[in-house]
Amino acid sequence: MAVIDGNLWEYNLARVVVVDVTDDYRLMKPAMPSECYPILAEIWVPRYMLKDKIAEIPLVDGYLYDWHQSPAKESEHWYIGVVDRVMLVNRTEA
Questions:
Q1: 0.90 cut: is pTM over it?
Q2: Count of Cβ atoms closer than 10 Å to residue 31 Cβ
Q3: What are the pLDDT digits (tens) for 23-43?
Q4: Tens of pLDDT along 44-68?
Q5: What is the radius of gyration, based on Cα positions, of the chain?
């Protein structure tokens, strides 16, 4: 009889940390390290073809995708930077 040791979900799912980068645009600041931004959400998504589908992942309501940072190792998590939709709408109307 075969025995599976460990948790298979760890290999099939990736942890994604969604951070708010709106202040970079509001204050015209250079980008900071990903760990320094306020965290809006942490989600788990299928790891399969994540690089190709990352911009299509439903994130946080009212925010738009800006950038992502893939992990250096498989066991680490992804970062996705998002911008407040109101900030972008106001900027385009000016």
A1: no
A2: 11
A3: 998 888 898 999 999 999 998
A4: 888 887 777 777 777 789 999 899 8
A5: 16
Question: 14 Cβ partners below 8 Å, 6+ apart?
Answer: 44, 45, 46, 47, 50, 77, 78
Query: How many CA atoms does the CB half-sphere of 60 hold within 13 Å?
Result: 21
User: What b-and-e string marks burial along 45-70, b requiring 16 or more CB atoms within 10 Å of the CB?
Assistant: eebeebeeebeebebeeebeebebee
What is the residue-wise DSSP string for the chain?
-----S-THHHHEEEEEEEE-HHHHHTTPPPPPGGGSPEEEEEEEE-TTHHHHGGGS---TTEEEEEEE--SSTTS-EEEEEEEHHHHHHHHH-
Q: Looking at this protein, which amino acid is placed at residue 38?
A: P
Give the residue from 60, 52, 56, 53 showing the smallest Cα distance to 22: 60
CB 46 within 8 A of CB 12: yes
